[in-house]
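INFO  loader      accepted 1 record
INFO  loader      residues=251
INFO  predictor   begin
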Amino acid sequence: MTDFSYQLFSSRNWGQEETLDMIGDLGYAQCEGYGAFYNELDQLDALKERLAKNGLHMKSGHFALDMVEDNPERVLQICRELNIEHVYVPFLMPDQRPTDADGWRAFGKRLAKAGEPIVAAGLTFGWHNHDFEFVALPTGELPEDLILEGGDHINVELDIAWVVRGGADPVETVKKYGKRITAIHVKDLAPAGEKEDEGGWADAGTGTMDWPAIWAAVQEHTSAEIFVMEHDNPSDHARFAKTAIANARKF
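INFO  predictor   done
INFO  writer      dumping tokens
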């Protein structure tokens, strides 16, 4: 059976201990961390105990680009302490995003350089997308393609629902990036006009995404070994966590 992971950002509006207990009880084997869980190094011992108590492996983590660039040893220390194997840079603020192809190519090179110490330490390094990487530039290029030109060691954590929001086909995108995809965010989109209080997102398997077809493409074409349940704004994180893993097991 596939070991499923849970993006802890989904539960940012609830307590950390409560969240780890909840997903452990639901049968998650992994979780994906983000800054609030390890910004302070003195948090790590308590976090390790809570993960162990719930049978959870924080196999992957999101780390801000400036931290990866400016303090890679701290990133590596956190990874060693928590046994994190995959480091993904998750976002670029709108005012920091390039506006042309040359700018995105330069960003890809910057990202590649930042990831060199991570890869040298034996970890997987990559980029987690949103929608803006799949909106074509006026000259026709996709920012995602230009980012990945920066270096072969930039892997892809593919957030497929954001791919769809960016206007791309999810199955064709999976095929396109293939073996560079090392992790998948499993999330869903509500029908237009529904669940607006939750940002238009839906629990995995309950929305408009054809997850059985996407899952088949992921299994055939990618090297993904991490499958992360995520909802950007659930009104009830326990409902989401329970529904998502139950549906993913059916894929």
